[in-house]
């Protein structure tokens, strides 16, 4: 930008900070969506840790390059960006589900960490189970062997008590 004005410099700084603070960034095309629909989408994304913003592509391109990201191929046409703090899977699911009911929202791709994602990869991300479910499954995998080991250790005394009880019952019956 030759001779940028203060507003544009501040916006690039803000976008750069959003990129730096986000765990993931998902880019969409929103052409044809009404303001009310964008508001609904923003309200749906907010609890999931998503912030849905619209900036000029040129400013986003500059901010992305400052953060070492190359998202130029996705910055064509009207672009809205979901900055994600937290679980990117949940935000990707919300965008996918919203796009199913609103054909005008198109997921272009994204950035997860420093890796640029295609639209297909974002779709695959949306198909993954949520973070909490994965953590619960991992905890279950760790707990299962311990539970089996405790049961194995308890078996000999339990079997001894059953055998002793059967012997006592047999002696009482005789």
Provide a descriptive summary of the structure in words.
- The chain has 174 residues and is α+β, with helices and mostly antiparallel strands.
- Helix content is 59%, strand content 16%.
- It is built from 6 helices and 5 strands.
- Helix 4 (88-101) packs across helix 5 (119-127).
- The protein is elongated and about 105 Å long.
Gyration radius from CA atoms, angstroms: 27 Å
Strand order of the largest sheet: 2-3-1-4-5
Straight-line distance between termini: 103 Å
Q: Spans of 5+ residues with little confidence (pLDDT < 50)?
A: none
The structure class reads alpha+beta
Overall pLDDT: 84
Percentage of residues in strands? 15-25%
Counted beta strands:
5
One letter per element, helices H and strands E, the order comes to HEHEHEHEEHH
Q: Count of helical segments?
A: 6
- Helix percentage: 55-70%
Described by strand count, sense and barrel closure, the largest sheet is: 5 strands, antiparallel
The coarse overall form would be elongated
């Amino acid at each position: 930008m030759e001779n940028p004005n203060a507003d544009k410099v501040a916006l690039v700084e803000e976008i750069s900070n959003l990129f730096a603070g986000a765990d993931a960034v998902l880019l969409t095309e929103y052409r044809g969506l009404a303001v009310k629909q964008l508001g609904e989408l923003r309200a749906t994304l907010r609890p999931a840790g998503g912030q849905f913003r619209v900036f000029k592509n040129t400013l986003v391109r500059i901010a992305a390059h400052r953060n070492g990201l190359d998202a130029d191929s996705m910055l064509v046409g009207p672009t809205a960006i979901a900055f994600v703090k937290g679980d990117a899977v949940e935000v990707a699911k919300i965008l996918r589900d919203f796009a199913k009911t609103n054909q005008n929202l198109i997921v272009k791709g994204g950035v997860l960490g420093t890796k640029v994602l295609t639209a297909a990869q974002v779709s695959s991300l949306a198909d993954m189970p949520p973070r909490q479910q994965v953590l619960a499954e991992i905890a279950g995998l760790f707990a299962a062997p311990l539970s089996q080991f405790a049961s194995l250790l308890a078996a000999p005394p339990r079997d001894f008590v059953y055998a002793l009880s059967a012997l006592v019952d047999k002696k009482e019956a005789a």
